[in-house]
């Protein structure tokens, strides 16, 4: 997921930079002639490195927040509004098989900051699809309990066996440990 985002943003940034340098190039070297007739040297490697640094700052938060009970409910109500937010969650893997693939699992997650006294029936749980690199997820199996620093991606829905649909929160795992 991150690789795809980096690639898309990298291509968009390079395209925008090249367009701002005068549009079409008449040569294939690093020296391009823009429409004003002046020559300009563009260091593609530095441009790509700058774009990757910017993308890394946008995609990966520097801290992972433990949500309050209210923030947890707001996340479940509208995950798209919190897209890009780093959160710390805990949960249990309920599906991790050929259907989900090796880079995503479905989990029942709960807010690590939820107060048992304020929520004695522990209603602050939800189902989420959590994606990560195959390396990060390699040692996890259905039934494992975990703690995860992740980034809220967006809302999605899936079909249930009884013909209905359910809302799920898509998240990208950054740090994941058995817990």
Question: Would you write up a description of this structure?
Answer:
This protein has 179 residues and is α+β, with helices and mostly antiparallel strands. It folds into two domains: 2-59, no CATH class; 69-178, OB fold (Dihydrolipoamide Acetyltransferase, E2P) (Beta Barrel). The chain is 27% helix and 34% strand. The chain contains four helices and seven strands; from the N terminus they run H-E-E-H-H-E-E-E-H-E-E. It has helices at 2-20, 44-59, 69-77, 134-137, and strands at residues 31-33, 39-41, 86-95, 104-111, 125-131, 145-159, 165-178. The strands form two sheets. The chain has a five-stranded mixed beta barrel with strand order 3-4-5-7-6. A hairpin with a 5-residue loop joins strand 1 and strand 2. Helix 1 (2-20) packs across helix 2 (44-59). The longest helix is centred in the N-terminal third of the chain and has 19 residues, at 2-20. It is globular, with a radius of gyration of 21 Å. The relative contact order is 0.15. The model is unreliable at 23-34 and 53-58 (pLDDT under 50).
Brief rundown of the structure:
Helices cover 27% and strands 34% of the residues. The chain is of the alpha+beta class and 179 residues long. It folds into two domains: 2-59, no CATH class; 69-178, OB fold (Dihydrolipoamide Acetyltransferase, E2P) (Beta Barrel).
């Amino acid at each position: 997921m991150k690789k795809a985002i980096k690639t898309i943003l990298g291509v968009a940034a390079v395209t925008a930079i090249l367009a701002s340098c005068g549009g079409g190039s008449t040569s294939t070297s690093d020296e391009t002639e823009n429409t004003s007739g002046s020559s300009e040297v563009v260091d593609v490697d530095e441009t790509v490195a700058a774009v990757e640094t910017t993308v890394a700052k946008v995609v990966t938060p520097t801290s992972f927040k433990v949500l309050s009970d209210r923030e947890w409910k707001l996340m479940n109500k509208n995950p798209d509004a919190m897209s890009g937010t780093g959160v710390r969650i805990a949960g249990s893997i309920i599906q991790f098989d050929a259907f989900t693939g090796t880079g995503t699992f479905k989990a029942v997650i709960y807010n690590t900051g939820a107060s048992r006294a304020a929520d004695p029936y522990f209603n602050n749980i939800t189902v989420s699809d959590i994606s990560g690199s195959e390396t990060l997820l390699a040692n996890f199996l259905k039934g494992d309990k975990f703690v995860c620093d992740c980034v809220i991606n967006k809302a999605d829905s899936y079909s249930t066996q009884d013909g209905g649909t359910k809302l799920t929160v898509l998240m990208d795992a950054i740090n994941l440990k058995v817990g």
